[in-house]
Amino acid sequence: xxxxxxxxxxxxxxxxxxxxESGGITRAEEALAVAxxxxxxxxxxxxxxxxxxxxxGLAGGSNGAxxxxxxxxxxxxxxxxxxSANSRxxxxxxxxxxxxxxxxxxxxxxxxxxxxxxFKQFMSELAKKxxxxxxNGSLPAGLSATAYGExxxxxxxxxxxxxxxLDTSGPALQKGVEAKPFxxxxxxEEMEILLGHSLSKREDQIKAVKTFLGEGIEVVxxxxxxxxxxxxxxxxxxxxxxxxxxxxxxxxxxxxxxxxFAHRLLEKGDVIEAVxxxxxxxxxxxxxxxxxxxxRTQVEEFLRLIKLSxxxxxx
Length: 315
Fold this sequence. Notes:
UDP-N-acetylmuramoyl-L-alanine:D-glutamate ligase, globular, 4-stranded mixed sheet
């Protein structure tokens, strides 16, 4: 079973406009709303690829109720531990005339200590039934930067066979990698912040991946946007060039990569094949307007086009 964790769940609303009138009224041409947060996007990706994922995390207030209702409508299995605070609304504005995407996020809800304890207790039981758990997104207010590390240690104790994927940023990532998750998936900016220097050159990107392989993380996927992916596994490093597609939105592509990877890994048991499938899923997400919205048929078509090349010898 795949379990996805979203501690900062949200309602993701997307407005599609021809042009934003700064200081005036802008009328959207289209409005879309889905249950959001990175882990929920991962669960949606798995579901659309024909797999099953159980979405969990923290959610509260009227927005939390709507998040649950939207997941129910999508037929995604879930259980979110209740917060006393209201969950977020996140707004994405796609301006077609300028080909610009802007994102505006509500402030995070504040998690109380007893709510965090309730969630950890729930996860210690759920982990016993899980094959793979993805931990995704930012930490809500009220939790320390060590929260994901605590959670990873707890999950490993509950089920040492369960693989944990960590996809976050900043101090949460810095502290989380100390718990040695099975996989991390930073983008270039997140990895640069983690290491404290630029990764503009390919040799620096390869070295960054090797650094975390050497620290005991089995799979390191460095997402480079329109430059593709550099990833490491079993002490080898590979590159995948991006495919040329018509981009409708870049939001949620990293989550689609994680979802595709998780689904294929449990299906085939092959890490390299799973990374390729994840990249194909992210590419499919590029062609849609909402997060985690992938086409299984399209993903299989993209998978046949993806080319993998060893790059580790460049250092």
